[in-house]
């Protein structure tokens, strides 16, 4: 089925090379759609269109209130087409339909609505200074042409949380979705034209790694916002040195969850399981390594394994499915490789540990897997698996736990489960992560900043911090003599 072309300068077109790629339904292994496989020439054209639109008065001189109305209109159109977007996201990515509807589509609409409210509030200040007979004021101006590169785990939602602030600040964009899951981005692009955005403000180039590299390397791109692996993030840093373009990098994670002796396991077990298997564990902030007080270790591990074994795995469109497939066979092989490494290094599989068979054999299904008897130095405890693999380890002394949590290259998310409020605050301060959750598995919210420290990234998405990421501060001096 032909389902997507490139959007460049307001026109839909084939790739210059006429190359295509096929996206696959991970629940069945069957081809779902064919889209254009863009390359360097297509990125050149898209960047040129974005550069021209950046200078076009129809966008550059558009009143902020009108730009806000356009963003708000996109949120309305998303809600109008919510069922179609949710089904498309489920078929292309695999997430259960209720997640696609309530998280991906509803969350995307909320991001456009939230940042529509920011458009008329992006202003500067008048600093107090010591220069006589002079006035200084600052303004925030668009960074320019932004290359937005999105991953395959939440294609629609992550595209929205990059597009909304970038456009709110008056930038123009080239969106490059992951080649595994391009369909919702293509459909979303149609909504921008319907909402009334001028041609060239939003451009979409579907394609593989070559298109992404061309966008990062392009001298006409002023900023790159990337969500994906730490390895690719490092490559982007090196490539961006050419023209010192601005970068926002939301990279990998290996979220720790600390369960103390006084934790309420009736809350902690199901919440941690939800976090660990959300979107089949394909979430950078998913709880994946658990440090449990030794007095509660056996009970927590068994309860977690029992709950994991009861999870209903199946196609995302099936009623009652709690966990869908992994995104594809290549990724399934990667996840299974980590499981095999855990066994070879001496950890014990309590439940799961192999791909689903029977009626699910044709799809990329991997049931929730729980490891016990693990150590901090094992790959399953140190490296990002990006699958429903949960590693449980005991601790004896609360004084040691922050150091063990922090002994990781990642610093995206951590959680603490305790009834001791003072302990919660102390651990939240000691843990090196950009987000610490206490007795909660919190959802993302467009008003709250999101990002990582250490190898989990640079910069922040969402909230007022996103406005800073997509603007430059200009200082203006006025002599008063």
Reported by name, the CATH topology of the largest domain is Aldehyde Dehydrogenase, Chain A, domain 1
Strands of the biggest beta sheet: in what spatial order?
Answer: 14-15-16-13-12-18-19
Report the total helices.
16
Radius of gyration: 23 Å
Strand fraction band? 15-25%
CATH class of the largest domain: Alpha Beta
- Low-confidence parts, pLDDT < 50 over ≥5 residues? none
What features would you describe in this structure?
- This protein is α/β, with parallel strands linked by helices and 481 residues long.
- It contains 16 helices and 22 strands.
- It folds into 2 domains: 274 residues, Aldehyde Dehydrogenase, Chain A, domain 1, CATH 3.40.605.10; 192 residues, Aldehyde Dehydrogenase, Chain A, domain 2 (3-Layer(aba) Sandwich).
- The strands form 6 sheets. Strands 14-15-16-13-12-18-19 form a 7-stranded mixed sheet, with helices on both faces. It has a 6-stranded mixed sheet with strand order 9-8-7-10-11-21, sandwiched between helices. A 3-stranded mixed sheet has the order 1-5-4, with helices on one face.
- Keywords: Oxidoreductase.
- It comes from Nocardia jiangxiensis.
- Belongs to the aldehyde dehydrogenase family.
